[in-house]
Amino acid sequence: ITVRLLWDNRSVFMTICSERNSAEACALIATAYSEGSSGVVRDYIKAFRYATKACSMGAPIGCSVLAEMYDNGSGVPKSADKAVQYYEIACNQDESLACHNLAVIYSTGNGAKQSYKKSLAFFRKACDLGRGYSCDGVGVQYEYGLGVEKSIPKATEFYFKGCHLKSPEACSNYQRLGRGLQKIQFFIGPSSRFNRF
């Protein structure tokens, strides 16, 4: 459902959220208010109220909206601890953007103690959930040996996957390493893992 469609039918979604306690409807309203796009006027107070309700009812997108608000200090005092807490709740429910954001927090150390092992785990989960730029993050960690043994073939594999999931960065990295991989294969012989290339 698009945010525009949501906003055109906001009274219906607000009724469904309030009277039927629909976590999904509350999460959609929270997203609309927090983004302030498609004709929706940004209102962090309303976004926080609906996101809190959605998250408490088990909607991962509601938890993700709360996490982003705390992460950026949007309408609430900035709190890295609360951002990580809500991102983890959402990621545990397979909200891929929350997993990706956790990976970024742990890879940079901006909001939590830096841990490449944790960032790799969250990048992989988000990648498995279809986030192309998260696949690029996995590839970077394998390419440079960040929290994992350095492996150009694995980096290339994740760049390839990310490229197919429409990440321009992954496509660029795949193209850059793909040429080097061909040279490596010339010396070590073809690998059945890379026949798809």
Question: What is the compact description of this entry?
Answer:
By secondary structure, the protein is mainly alpha-helical. It has helices at 3-8, 10-19, 23-35, 44-56, 60-72, 80-92, 96-108, 116-128, 132-144, 152-164, 168-188.
How would you explain this protein's 3D organization?
With about 200 residues, the protein is mainly α. It has eleven helices and no strands. The chain has helices at about 5-10, 10-20, 25-35, 45-55, 60-70, 80-90, 95-110, 115-130, 130-145, 150-165, 170-190. Helix 3 (about 25-35) packs antiparallel against helix 4 and helix 7 packs antiparallel against helix 8 (about 115-130).
- Kindly report how far apart the N and C termini lie: 36 Å
H and E order: HHHHHHHHHHH
Percent helix among the residues? over 70%
- Average residue pLDDT: 86
Number of helical stretches of at least 4 residues: 11
- Low-confidence runs (pLDDT<50, min 5 residues)? 180-197
Number of strands: 0
Structural class: mainly alpha
Oligomer: single chain
Radius of gyration: 20 Å
Shape: elongated
Sheet bearing the most strands, described? Answer: none
Quote the beta fraction. under 5%
List the helices and strands and how they pair.
Elements: H1 3-8, H2 10-19, H3 23-35, H4 44-56, H5 60-72, H6 80-92, H7 96-108, H8 116-128, H9 132-144, H10 152-164, H11 168-188
Helix pairs in contact: 2-3, 3-4, 3-5, 4-5, 5-6, 6-7, 7-8, 8-9, 9-10, 9-11, 10-11
